[in-house]
Amino acid sequence: MPDISVKPFGAVNGCDVSVFTLRNDNGMTVSVTNFGGIVTAINVADREGKFTNVVAGLDSAEDYANDGAFLGALVGPYANRIANGAFTIDGQKYQLEQNAGSNNLHSASAGINKKVWQATSSSNNYTATLTLTVVCPDGEGGFPGDREIIAEYLLDNTNTLSLVMKATSTATSPLSLTSHGYFNLAGEGNVLGHQVMINADTFTPLNADCVPTGELRSVSGTPFDFRALKAMGEDISLTDEQLQLGSGYDHNFVLNTFAEPNAEPAAKVIESRSGRVMALWTNTPGLQFYSANCLSMASAGSQTFVDDGALCLEPQAFPDTPNHPEFPGGWIKPGEEHITWMKLNFSVQD
Question: Is 314 a catalytic residue?
Answer without folding.
Answer: yes
